[in-house]
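Following up on my earlier thread - several people asked me to post the actual chain instead of describing it. Fair enough. Here it is, all 787 residues.
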Amino acid sequence: MAEAHQAVAFQFTVSPDGIDLHLSHQALTEIYLSGVRSWKKRVIGLKNSVVTGVYPASLSSWLFVVIAILATMYTRSDPSMGLIAKIQEHLPRPYVMLSASLCAVPDAWCRAVLFSTMLWLLLIFTMRMCLKQLLSYHRWMFEKHGKMSNTTKVWALVRIFSGRKPLLYSYQGSLPNLPVPLIKDTVNRHLESVRPLMDDTEYERMTSLSEDFESGLGKRLQWYLKLKALWATNYVSDWWEEYVYLRGRSPIMVNSNYYGMDFMYVTPTPIQAARAGNSIHAYFLYRRKLNKEELKPTRIPGTVIPLCSAQCERMFNTTRIPGEETDTVQHWQDSDYIAVYHRGRYFRLRMYHAGRLLSPREIESQIQKILDDPSPPSKGEAKLGALTAGDRIPWAKARAKYFSSGVNKRSLDFIEKAAFFVTLDDDEQGGVADDPTRIDSYAKSLLHGKCYDRWFDKSFSVVYFKNGKMGLNGEHSWADAPVLSHAWQYVLTTDCFQLGYNAEGHCKGEVDSSLPGPQKLNWEIPPECEEQISGSLAVAQALADDVDVHVFSFEEFGKGKIKKCRVSPDAFIQLTLQLAHYRNQGRFCLTYEASMTRLFKEGRTETVRSCTNESCAFVRALEGGEDADVCRRLFHEASEKHQQLYRMAMTGAGIDRHLFCLYVVSKYLQVESPFLKEVLSEPWRLSTSQTPLQVEMFDLVNHPEYVSCGGGFGPVADDGYGVSYCALGEKMLSFHITCKHSCPNTDANTFGGEIRKALRDLLQLLSPEQAEPRKAAAQRPELKKDL
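Reply from S.P.:
Thanks for posting it. Predicted structure:
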């Protein structure tokens, strides 16, 4: 196993004969190749900046404009209407003398090229402004299917201005800024959202608070917020990142981080090191595409409308750094290695050798060396990761005191500057058909592990289990789950369908015998720091033990049958959750559904308040035994209302982000608002989110077994539920439910049962002919393999 001193490029000794200098040729070569790779990345970045800067035009279009102008001049006509001659008058004198001296290039040609360039830049500016205006139009989302207005038909010209073969960030300069809603509209929407949750007396009091705020302090706060919107790219995102994520002082494990799962029915190889070899290699292939901006911009499904890609920038080489008052997100431009944890020890594993990325077989070999290494952890090293799982202030103080210099700082830098973090877990995880609780254990392991065997501050950590299963844990502050989900699904498909394994289950390819081995990191942990580690571990362990998780796949029907009922699958599931929660708790509650605002520059999320007057009326009617026709009518009204709220949230007309920013402004101005204080303290007892599935990556028709179970997150409220769901193809749904054991009124398994029953009841209500008897577990025996 390579030690730290082997990475030093030179050593010297002092003797009576003088200084004896020893140069390491291998280390110097690696430094040189690393520099070459870094410069290549800069050149590619510069080239992409130019290509993106002129989009939706192309660099070749400049040549076309120049040739067109010169060709027109050749016919002895002046396409510039005298501007080319004017250019001559305003050119600096030295330039005129230089042009006259160039016999091969007539002076008129130089002026024509300059005019052509100016015309080309003007055309680009015009096209970008047109594209920005077209992307600012969102009324098409609110029009009924098949009924398109004339304005929307004209708006369809966005296809003409959207260009060809865009890079990842080509649309960034054309995306509109997030608009600030009218304060009157936001207040009225909030009142409507809380009406089903309040009695008449409470609602009258809230109405009075709202009116006082709208006519008084709200106007002042709104003025400051509009001022920020004029100055900043996005009036929400920076404050959202800082105050919702980075200033939180409680553990980010469970409370903020989330997880993603492997394939549900397939384990491509049972060899832990081989699975790591392929998927780590796939991650670096994805990073290469990301750096070269070769990934296609994400779009609204079925349209050419692009979404903001700014969150992709900090996916790799990123770490959350703890602070006493607030954390920070630190991103490095490049990193050529990963950090690996195994049995209490940390390793640095370089991913490049001789200027090339290691092959999957070489990575497997390196991972196997770590698995076979018998060395024990250093004193205090084994549970060091618990510092990232506990409260943030103790971790910030310990980092400043014990990890700011010497060997501890060097080793910590290796972890924090790594491309990402890898855990080699000795446990076997995954579910089997006859033991569904195994998948619950799998989810809990990904959510928090042993509380010390993950580095929760890294942008993401990949976990490899002993039986070949894998999963990930993502830190939330730098980006939202769909961004990391895209990379995860790319890795899953590349692992199985492009890289593959040989007959023995090992990665394909050969191993270069000259590869240096992994470098074990060294630590000097004092007893005082060990006490702090133990304290953080105790806090994290108590939190982990309190989490109740239940994961299940619903195979009786999927979004295919739901769409045949002419209902949005998302609205169907949200109403299912409302019905299930009412049956479980006997009441309605404030419900959070995450929606994205990436139609706007640097957009992140907005809240859809899914518990509405319409949804409550439907649930009461169904539970009260009303006629089926009445229930169907109320269901469709509730579904339409939910779709309307979702569209409004996507287009910047939500409730919660606007009120949140007004609250932040009030804190800066040091003024108190009873209305905002009450709104921001409302508990979200049902927090939900849909995991997107990149349908172009998975062929679920021909390979239905290659489907991921999605991912999940911890409960937001101590007495509530967290629910993540995903439509897996056309015939299956998956649900991840979390709550806390310490609350006597919540139970993840019980709530899961209510969701199953509600799904069947709603399909039976909407389409009795489509509702089928409950399928047995053996319905699809070809998929019921060992998970």
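The chain has 25 helices and 20 strands. That should answer part of your original question.
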